[in-house]
Write a structure and sequence with these properties.
single chain; about 140 residues; alpha+beta; 7-stranded antiparallel sheet; 5 helices; about 30% helix
Length: about 140
Amino acid sequence: MENAKELIRSASELNLDHKLLTQSEAEVYIQDIFTRFKVGKTTGHLAIWHESQTLPLNEYEYKYSEHLPDEPVYVFFEQQGLDKNAVVILTQGKMLGKVVENSFGMEYFVSDASSSFLIAVNWYAIEIAGAAKEYFHK
């Protein structure tokens, strides 16, 4: 759980509320997201592909979360290796960009409690799907 631990460390350092789902809760949550959004790539350079739009990484990398609703976000990672079935909930979702900026580089997915949107952040781009499309076109 290297990425999950790093995200928790960074959130703690910034005095932001967070929690880690149990492995069984995380497994169910992640599977629901992957099924709902027909995710194209869950390892390597994470990607949604299906019915998604791409945002430029250099413009949005640490700022995209400011476009999200003021609610908790669920962050999870590549589904192979140490971070498989790890979901970190950050209560102040709009602050996710600051948390990531304060940590080592990582690829990750972001959604919410109701799985209404999915965001994939990899080394090259940010993909958005579901309700997230509305957040960036207001």
